[in-house]
């Protein structure tokens, strides 16, 4: 493959800047912008100010939007939310405009959690190709990757091939409070000219090959509540004489899903889109094997015997998980209680073309009918407590084609085409509000430990990731 | 019925002493002898000293035994246990000797729990025939009942018809720590000459008629542990690809017992003693109806449609209760977790002639075989965490016959013959250590709220209960 002169020049500049990029990430990681801890709220704000300063120095025009306040964990403690940063680099109406999303807050981290080093001091481990620190991969590395791209072009004194609009938030790790409204409000405002969206906030499928992610499962969460006595009872006095809610609930939970993963709710699979031949081909040659599952789970408990079935059940088939029971005895030790009211909690991961309302109807009908079969005098209710839709983009869209070409430019391989089993709600928000193609283009690897101890970003992923983001902009500019 | 001159004289003395008895209970309730709260440990000791003083003033010879120390809730905080009080009134070798057990500690109580009055200030509510205060019925009223009997005889300057040996502990509400060893140690020592045991620490079946209690169910407690992943997993990422421990556990729990109470473990009912005709007669004319069950449960969720079946399933048939799950999500709200390791907790109430070891074998075999059917790659273990045997005395024993006659002497009715569904471990300890008949002879009513707010003892139960304990001693003396 022959690279264009601009890309050659850009890649070379990135290589030269390596030390500076690492210093920039060091500065960013040093700000403990933990959005879930009120005592760090000012650090989140400070991290936002750091990014605004960097963007302004590179010539971006920067605005902020106020997401308002939050009632912290429903405690009545009112906290100001950190600003959403909107920044523009380039306004050439002849160029495409890419909306770049990222978040500048991080997960909590304490040395005592088991970190080998101080989480907020970036450790450069060249021998192992690692940059270790909280936020290195989630999501400061990727945000700085974009800033690195802009900086390299300024240093080279060449224009970016596209306009960039940044949307950077400081509450992603705490539910993105206030962001959805701002996106909808600005859809026909600040984001009016956006051609496509690029989000770099997930991970490669494995550790060796980049991927483009084009789908996410949805999630519907239910509580089954079984109530009987007015208060908890002593099992010695009442055991054998009354209908026990926990017994009824155990029977209901056992009716939801088989140990082999098959969901037992009638009709649940009816609208699941079949696997097409074209889709099946995307499962060939993926950077994944069953040992990867075993490694991440820590035990060999796979339901499926091959990679294709495993990943299809993670990405594009529904699953039902039992999360727990509220109201029953949960402490260590023994307690001879008959719990008066128990809530069984489960959720279903949904996929195209399942419809949340229809699923809720099926769930309620089924649980109600199974409860009737128990002939219990207790009462049973089923409640949807949370619902988020699945998301699917077309990997044939020019936004994806451009990203795939950029991967080839930088890595010399075709990317894995992946989906994810969990939801990233902001993806759906962007697609719905802007009605533009959204691309998930990760920088880090599957073993980065984003929400865990010793979070890392490989140095090569940071540097090549910066190249990738730049190359992607050139491919977007060339896309038809 | 014609009462003996001694009983007539004794009853009359009790009536005269009514005011003094209430004052004595007022003094006792005022000492907050909460054994479960270390800050009240000295009050428990003080309550013991109060009883020793009372007994000494009445001419008893009093000794104490040191149960040692406890590690409070496993916290490493070492607390001295309150003494076990051994007291003797009368040593006439020609008389029978009755061992009287009681406990001088109480359950915790705070006004803020919902009490209408200060829990440690005895309230005399003559209009409603009530003495309200913590410990009034459990178990200070009954202990003082015995002391009242001794006092009345001293006042009348007549000898008791039997010798009494007291065994009073201060840790009953906190597991009777240290007592079992003392009973075994003294079986051939202090308790050598005991003819029979009388414990007044349970309650009438209803609110209108005294009862004698001759049986208790046992209890075997089990944990089923299902383990899979090395740590909790995210259901978005892993749902549908791995065997989930909570799903396996729900299936296992549903296999233990039907919603109608029928235990599904094969062989579990094989050794349950059949109901004899004689036993069936004891269920006639009991002071209990189904509304009593509904009232105490706070809802109409009875499994059985008549009193006989209901009480038989409480007293003399086994039951299986599901208590809860450790390791799963138990908080309010939603969490999309796949718990890595879950423990399902259940217990079986056992009855004659079930054998604990045999039951444990049946439980383990059955759960293991049901788990195999699930074809899961998770692991499953079953563990017995607690086992206590059932207890059954013969209501034909002279000790019971004497108590039944005493009930007729005081109340003019035949007592209910009852059993209880829960265990009172000390009962079994006395029977095993001393190999003597043990009688449960309650003073209070079923609605006394022993462990609840506004605990009370009816004035009439306190006064007639004192008469009953005295009359019982005379009937014991006369028994063949």
Automatic annotation (TrEMBL), chains A, B:
Ligand binding (Mn(2+) 1): 138, 173, 451
Keywords for the protein's UniProt record, in alphabetical order: Carboxypeptidase, Hydrolase, Manganese, Metal-binding, Metalloprotease, Protease
Cofactor binding annotation: Binds 2 manganese ions per subunit.
UniProt-recorded Gene Ontology molecular function terms: carboxypeptidase activity; metal ion binding; metallodipeptidase activity
Signal peptide segment: none
Protein residues bound to Mn(2+) 2: 103, 138, 201
Domain Peptidase M20 dimerisation positions: 214-373
GO biological process: one example: proteolysis
Protein's name in the database: Putative glutamate carboxypeptidase
Species this protein is from: Absidia repens
